Amino acid sequence: MSEASERATGGGRRAVAGEAPDAEAAHAGVPDAGANFAADDRFAHLRGTAGEEQIQLDKAERRFIRRRSWKLLVQLSVGVRRKLLLTAIFVVIAQAAQASIPLIVAWAIDWGLPRMIEGQSSGMWLPGLSYIACAVIAGVLIFHYTRMTAEASQQMLFTLRGEVFRKTQALSLDFHEDYTSGKVISRQTSDLESLRELLDGGINSLVQGVMFMFFTGVTIWIMDIHSGLILVAALFPIAVLGRWYQRNSEVAYRRTRVSSAKMIVHFVESMTGIRAVQAFRREDSRSRQYRRLAADYREDMVRSISLFGVLQPSLMLIGNVTVTAVLLWGGYRVLEGDLGIGVLVALVLATKRVFQPLDMIAMFYNSLQSATAALEKVSGLLEESPTVTEARHPRHLNEARGELEFSQASFRYAEDGPVVLHSLDLHIPAGQTVAVVGRTGAGKSTLAKLLARFYDVSSGAVTLDGVDLRDLATADHHRHVAMVTQEAFLFSGTIRGNIALGRPEASEQEIIAAAKAVGCHDLILELPEGYDTDVNKRGGRLSAGQRQLISFARAFLADPAVLILDEATSSLDLPSEALVQQGLERLLGNRTALIIAHRLSTVAIADRVLVIDDGRVVEDGAPEELASQGGYYAKLDAAWRSSMGA
Ligand SMILES: Nc1ncnc2c1ncn2[C@@H]1O[C@H](COP(=O)(O)OP(=O)(O)OP(=O)(O)O)[C@@H](O)[C@H]1O
Questions:
Q1: Same domain, yes or no: 325 and 473
Q2: Is the pTM of this model over 0.90?
Q3: Among 50, 114, 454, 528, whose Cα sits 20 to 30 Å from the Cα of 329?
Q4: In the structure, what pLDDT confidence band is assigned to residue 277 with cuts at 50, 70 and 90?
């Protein structure tokens, strides 16, 4: 059995890294975060981005998501672990130094003061020097570990940012059609921002706070066991409170991630579709919808922050009650003569200080919950895998003639969706120009998308020069098959840069030759800065026809054997249409071309016309031949001619 026929046949089936047998999953950056769970189908509904909007999770589901998130964090820490370890050591020493300050105060009062009174100078300078030494050690170490944490966290975020971008670029079209760019933007911006807050300041405050509390707690135990016991008793209400906060804020923050993504999706759609919004006067209704989504987000945020509002003062209350207990019990024992006054002062000082970092830790916990919710979403996104992948042992085609063949090719967008192309058999000889026409929704673009390999057929095969597209090396496919899309998208930058996208290594002469070939050289020279004109700047903005010509030049430079063209439906004025038509004819040359045609002039230059209806070829022949047969094409041809007054 060939590799192609062994493949899964469900077109459009979304894959996650855990189950995709491709090179993508083994990418060196961040390997798939959910592979361990791949065999466990209980979590299929949570794999990848599938369960992203599920707010309530049961215990096992939480564990699955948590593990995926933590695994991602661990993977991100590769390369900065030494730095993190060193940071941890510095934090421990710095906090030990800081925590010993109450001990030094007790020592100064109970040991140093009596000696000073007796005239011994060591009573003053020994505690004084120790105090300064501790402060200097803590200061120097804090400086170093703050810098190291920033470096480590920024490095982790840098890796993650790159990984999210790489992954979203690599994912197949079916993913993007489902997931929308708004959600991707939300993952890349607000989710990574939450993580940044945690990694930048949060972890530092946690380790610092915990260490400080630990060492201060130890000094309290060293000074007085009674006070140590009071401190331990205070840990119980703290633990109960922490558990309550964790349970509630986890759900609350998960909700904020979902509502924030919805808000960003709406924003991005309104902005990218601003022409449609304004054309249909939807500004007010879009604004109202946005306000509603923003209000949901506001409420979710207020709910999660309110939880923090309960946590923080409750911790402070526990802290103050503990200090009072230590003071009262210690004061009583001072009166009884069981405790030195210096020790009591140090104990009260230390007990007060022991709770200080709780504030910081609570803040950390807050950003941890927010970042955990974000990490859940980002790790899910990274778990996705492209459905269209390169074969394990790809076949190479150095030169291509451009012969295309659809053999019993069927396609459906979703496993359980309707069949869009039905067992299509179609042979297109090298060099032929084929115009595809048909009613809207007939399947014309789908044919083009299969050739461009945005999708793979659900069954059957599509071949180029006899090589199944699924077996063809991706680089060779990209080199031999180029698609010019309707919107003729231009990237920010110069005209030159936009044409060079066709072949980045092309020389200046080749770029100019391509522009001349398709007939846009003169119009480029008329722009304010010629080939250096920025397409987004005033004066560089091009008309629809001009943009088409630039995209033709780009395709000409790429020099593919097969050209797929989704002709723009928007009508151009007659001079522009003539220019575009000439450009197209020059671009076509001897290439094989499949053009989704919307203009009579384009069909007229085609060798062959295919009429598609409901995913089947219903007419196939030369344009003049079909025009005389009285079918769909004949009617279309007549309608075009009458609209042109011919
Ligand atoms: N991403 C998608 N997911 C699910 N179904 C889709 C998707 N894209 C297209 N379809 C469906 O597939 C069928 C064929 O669509 P296709 O875009 O190929 O038609 P078309 O002939 O190019 O139409 P048009 O001329 O309007 O562009 C339609 O029924 C359409 O609803």
A1: no
A2: no
A3: 114
A4: confident
